[in-house]
Amino acid sequence: MGKSIASRFDNIDIAKSTLRAVIINDDELTLEMDFCLEPDHEDYETPLEGEDCCWHPGMLKFAGISKLQLDRRDAASDTMQRRFAIEKFNIEGTKFDMECEWGDIHLAARSIRVLTE
Q1: Is 70 in contact with 22 (CB distance < 8 Å)?
Q2: Where are the domains of the chain?
Q3: Are strands 54-72 and 84-92 parallel, antiparallel or unpaired?
Q4: What is the 3-state secondary structure (H, E, C) of 74-88?
Q5: What's the domain of life for this entry (predicted)?
Q6: Angle at Cα 64 formed by Cα 11 and Cα 12, nearest 5°?
Q7: Does the structure show a pLDDT above 60 at 78?
Q8: What is the per-residue pLDDT for 27?
Q9: Partners of 92 in beta bridges
Q10: 40 near 7, Cβ under 8 Å?
Q11: How far out from the chain centre does Cα 77 lie?
């Protein structure tokens, strides 16, 4: 049996992680992330000098989307920002909600995967 969604975030500090990109493709949504890994994560490395996290690229992939609401903030589209801070993050079953500097994302999906590169 696969791991639960919550356990896939073990040793990842979501509050410090950032969103890099939102990619929509048919019934799929991919969120490119810079995850802030905690010391017990298998990919953890000592942070570089001046950094407070072990930054590691990754993705949240949602497939079989039955509901999708993207509310992009005007301020986000006016700047060439590379990372967007996460303000609220919640996954319950097939439902996902995130508020961040980029905007708000609400969806329901058949499949939610957490991938680290």
Answers
A1: yes
A2: 6-116
A3: unpaired
A4: HHHHCCCCCCEEEEE
A5: Bacteria
A6: 5
A7: no
A8: 82
A9: 95
A10: no
A11: 19
